[in-house]
């Protein structure tokens, strides 16, 4: 049925995730209109516990049993370590296929076949230049974030839910597979269908430029956040939350989340407008980051009375 509608298994997965986070965003925004007392119900607290992490969990009055499922937020680096290792491995396999004509392992082919057709496939996929470029940029992004977790960010005692932690680990594994699934070049053999140089397109450069700019925006935003807790010498002086300022913080509360969205948009540009699967990933990132930014924005506005009123949560002048 999904195939008849133009969707494959991987498309359905990302569309489902996007709709889940859109629903969560809408439910959270509408929760302010709940009757008095509903915010103390177990169902409401469980919902908020699952969508919040870090500082945004602070205002939530959770039962002791919910805290059993807390994982340190500083373990975020695990996600990027998994991504660097897994996506690096997939890059090696892709390059081996392009350069040496070596086919993907049968277990990987079976997984890709299930995610794209719902069953095994007889043909073998040879990655296009666009797919390899997306793989490399995704790996660079993950490596940068891994280094930033260790060398830039200053984590407090914030926590994430164990469900969020497990989801984060699985997310980057699925993301690497998605790059290969969104690759449209299917041929029967182990060599490229046409010379690599003839595959170069102008939008590869456009996507790479946007990727570089968005990565720089995210890095600078994370540096500004870290400086709120460090002194001039770089040593940690406090773990308290302060009002961020400077850069794109003058426009939105979470420019690092906006940059994350732009990074995925840039990868979509590199993959080409035909790659429906990747644009479903972008849709998921949009709703996911919008929800996280809205929660952070509400935290700032409730904690700091002098918080700039003109500052939006996620999208300048809009949201």
Which descriptors would you attach to this protein?
globular, two-stranded antiparallel sheet, mainly alpha, 319 residues, two-stranded antiparallel ribbon, disordered N terminus
Indicate the low-confidence ranges by residue numbers.
1-5, 184-194
Could you state the oligomeric state of the chains shown? single chain
Q: First CA to last CA: what distance?
A: 36 Å
Q: What is the radius of gyration computed over CA atoms, rounded to a whole number of angstroms?
A: 21 Å
Nearest-integer average pLDDT: 85
What does this entry show, briefly?
This protein has 319 residues and is mainly α. Helix content is 57%, strand content 3%.
Question: How would you portray this structure in words?
Answer:
The chain is mainly alpha-helical and 319 residues long. It is built from 9 helices and 4 strands. A two-stranded antiparallel sheet has the order 1-3. A two-stranded antiparallel ribbon has the order 2-4. Helix 3 packs antiparallel against helix 5 (129-151) and helix 7 runs antiparallel to helix 8 (255-271).
């Amino acid at each position: 049925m999904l195939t008849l509608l133009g969707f494959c298994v991987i498309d359905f997965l990302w569309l489902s995730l996007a709709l889940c986070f859109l629903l969560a965003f809408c439910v959270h925004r509408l929760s302010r209109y709940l009757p008095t007392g509903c915010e103390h119900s177990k169902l409401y607290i469980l919902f908020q516990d699952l969508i919040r992490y870090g500082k945004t969990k602070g205002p939530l009055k959770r039962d002791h049993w919910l805290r059993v499922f807390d994982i340190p937020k500083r373990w975020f680096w695990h996600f990027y370590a998994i991504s660097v290792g897994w996506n690096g491995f997939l890059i090696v396999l892709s390059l081996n296929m392009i350069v040496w004509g070596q086919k993907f392992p049968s277990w990987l082919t079976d997984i890709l076949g299930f995610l794209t057709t719902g069953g095994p496939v007889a043909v073998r996929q040879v990655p296009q230049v666009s797919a390899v470029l997306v793989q490399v940029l995704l790996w660079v992004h993950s490596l940068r974030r891994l280094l930033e977790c260790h060398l830039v960010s200053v984590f407090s005692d914030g926590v994430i839910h164990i469900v969020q932690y497990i989801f984060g680990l699985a997310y980057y594994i699925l993301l690497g597979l998605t790059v290969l699934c969104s690759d449209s070049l299917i041929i029967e053999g182990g060599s490229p269908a046409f010379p690599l140089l003839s595959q170069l397109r102008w939008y590869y450069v456009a996507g790479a430029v946007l990727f570089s700019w968005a990565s720089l925006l995210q890095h600078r935003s994370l540096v500004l956040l870290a400086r709120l807790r460090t002194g001039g010498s770089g040593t940690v002086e406090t773990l308290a939350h302060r009002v961020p300022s400077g850069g794109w913080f003058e426009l939105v509360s979470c420019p690092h989340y906006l940059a994350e969205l732009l990074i995925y948009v840039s990868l979509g540009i590199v993959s080409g407008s035909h790659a429906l699967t990747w644009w479903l990933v972008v849709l998921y990132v949009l709703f996911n980051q919008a929800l996280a930014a809205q929660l952070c924005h509400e935290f700032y506005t409730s904690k700091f009375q002098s918080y700039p009123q003109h500052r939006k949560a996620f999208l300048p002048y809009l949201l």
